[in-house]
Each structure stands twice: as structure tokens, then as C-alpha cells.
């Protein structure tokens, strides 16, 4: 059974710092990996989708990488802002199906 | 437009009530999903509809009854729920039910069962 792990569970940084969130998965035969942001009590906002054939994707200050051989993905946030404070979830597709398997998330706090 | 809408935003219901959650998308997506998220936990898949047909049921109790009347609309009918069913219910959609396509989520319905 596919398992997705996110470390750390929580992270607090000062504004302006660059940071990296980690996601590891047990099945190297993934089809894609998706990063989401969730604000407290709200739905999920899709940030980036990395197909298995890709190594990274970029959107604004966000860059996500995928290393299938090591079973890891990272989300890099440049020049963090207080508005980036949220829980970040990664999810991959179980067995190549449409079933997303989520990690437990990293709660990010960016302090002004 | 990548918007998935859900109504109501909040719902409080008793254990003997019958209520429904509604989800709508106008992106032309042919796959729609229901997820359940308990506090401080990740979302867990409940149901998948592909081309208006139920394709995945993750062994969800029958007190939850999904319905997909057309390609844009997904309902979740609730009956005789338990307090432990209180959670955030999230709807999502994707172009088709495939690992290759991004899933877009709605804002969720916060359900409280009393």
C-alpha cells in the first residue's frame, strides 16, 4: 500500500526566508505528484502537479521537484511571506489510479 | 475557470435527519470525487464518479449515498449519520478519472452531526 510521509509536521520561519518542504513516497511507480495548500477550515488549493516524466515544475515563487528513484519530492518556497502561512499537503496517485493518497501535511507559519 | 463550488458551507444535522451536500463544476470535467477530512488529518477518498457512473466506493457506510445527476453536478445524500461523521466534506473534479490529471477541490462543507 502506498504511503506518503511529510517532514517536518510543522515549520516556523521569519518572513523573507527561503524554505523547503519534504514529501516521500513508498511506491516509485507513481504517475504524478500534486502539491496542495490548505488554509484553516478551507478546501484545498492545487499548487503544482508534477508528472512522473518531469523532474520539476515552477509557479511564481514555488518550485516542486520529483525524484522517483529516491521516492522524494520537495516544494521550495522562495522569499516567504506571512500570506504563505498554511498547511501544505502532497499527494500521489496510488498504483497509477485516480486515487490520491495524501501525506499528513506540513503546517507552515511565516512570521512578520 | 478552475472553480468547484460546494453548498452549503456549513451544515448541522441531527442523527435522524436527511440532508444533502451539493457540488458543481463547469470545467467540462468528467470525473468527480467526494473526500472526507477529519480535523488535523489528510483528506480520505470516499467515492469517484467517472462519466456519471460510480467507479470507486471506498467501503463507505450506506448512510452516505452519492448521486451524479449529470456531468456537472455531484450530490452526497446523508441519512442517519453518527456524531463521528462530523468532518469537512470536500468535492473535487478532474478532466477524466486518471492518474495523469490534476484534481481541483472545492471549499468544502463543514458538517456537524449532533
Q: In a few lines, what is going on in this structure?
A:
The complex is a heterodimer of chains A (about 110) and B (about 110). Helix content of chain A is about 0%, strand content about 55%.
Characterization of this structure:
The complex is a heterodimer of chains A (112) and B (114). Chain A is mainly β and 112 residues long. Chain A contains no helices and eleven strands. Chain A has strands spanning 4-7, 10-14, 19-25, 32-38, 44-51, 56-59, 62-67, 72-77, 86-93, 100-102, 106-111. In chain A, strands 2, 4, 5, 9, 10 and 11 form a six-stranded mixed β-sheet that branches. Chain A is globular. Chain A starts with a strand and ends with a strand. The model of chain A has no long low-confidence stretch (mean pLDDT 91). Chain B is mainly beta. Chain B has no helices and eleven strands. Chain B has strands at residues 4-7, 10-13, 18-25, 31-37, 44-50, 53-57, 64-70, 73-79, 87-94, 104-105, 109-113. In chain B, strands 2, 4, 5, 6, 9, 10 and 11 form a seven-stranded mixed β-sheet that branches. At the A-B interface, strand 4, strand 5 and strand 9 of A face strand 5, strand 9 and strand 10 of B.
Radius of gyration of chain A: 13 Å
Calculate Rg of chain B over CA atoms: 13 Å
Name the chain pair whose interface involves the most residues.
Answer: A-B, 24 and 30 residues
Query: Structural class per helix/strand content of chain B?
Result: mainly beta
Q: Spans of chain B with pLDDT under 50 lasting ≥5 residues?
A: none
Instruction: Tell me, rounded to a whole number, the average pLDDT of chain B.
Output: 94
Shape field of chain A: globular
Residue fraction in strands of chain B:
over 45%
On the 0 to 100 scale, the average pLDDT of chain A is 91
Largest sheet of chain A: 6 strands, mixed
In whole angstroms, the N-to-C terminal distance of chain A is: 41 Å
Task: Write the H/E string of chain B, N to C.
Answer: EEEEEEEEEEE
What fraction, in percent, of the residue positions of chain B are helical? under 10%
User: Count the strands of chain B?
Assistant: 11
Amino acid at each position: 500500500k502506498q504511503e506518503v510521509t511529510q517532514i517536518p509536521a510543522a515549520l516556523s520561519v521569519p518572513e523573507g526566508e527561503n524554505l523547503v518542504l519534504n514529501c516521500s513516497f513508498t511506491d516509485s511507480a507513481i504517475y504524478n505528484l500534486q502539491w496542495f495548500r490548505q488554509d484553516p477550515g478551507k478546501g484545498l488549493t492545487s499548487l503544482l502537479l508534477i508528472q512522473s516524466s518531469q523532474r520539476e515544475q515552477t509557479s511564481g515563487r514555488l518550485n516542486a521537484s520529483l525524484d522517483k528513484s529516491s521516492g522524494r519530492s520537495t516544494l521550495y518556497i522562495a522569499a516567504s511571506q506571512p500570506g504563505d502561512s498554511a498547511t501544505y499537503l502532497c499527494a500521489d496517485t496510488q498504483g497509477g489510479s485516480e486515487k490520491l493518497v495524501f501525506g499528513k501535511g506540513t503546517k507552515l507559519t511565516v512570521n512578520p | 475557470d478552475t472553480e468547484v463550488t460546494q453548498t452549503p458551507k456549513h451544515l448541522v444535522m441531527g442523527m435522524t435527519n436527511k440532508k444533502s451536500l451539493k457540488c458543481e463544476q463547469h470545467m467540462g470535467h468528467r470525473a468527480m470525487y467526494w473526500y472526507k477530512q477529519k480535523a488535523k488529518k489528510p483528506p480520505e477518498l470516499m467515492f469517484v464518479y467517472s462519466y456519471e457512473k460510480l467507479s470507486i466506493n471506498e467501503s463507505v457506510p450506506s448512510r452516505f449515498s452519492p448521486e451524479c445527476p449529470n456531468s456537472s453536478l455531484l450530490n452526497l445524500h446523508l441519512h442517519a449519520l453518527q456524531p463521528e461523521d462530523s468532518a469537512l466534506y470536500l468535492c473535487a473534479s478532474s478532466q477524466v478519472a486518471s492518474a495523469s490529471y490534476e484534481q481541483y477541490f472545492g471549499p468544502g462543507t463543514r458538517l456537524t452531526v449532533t
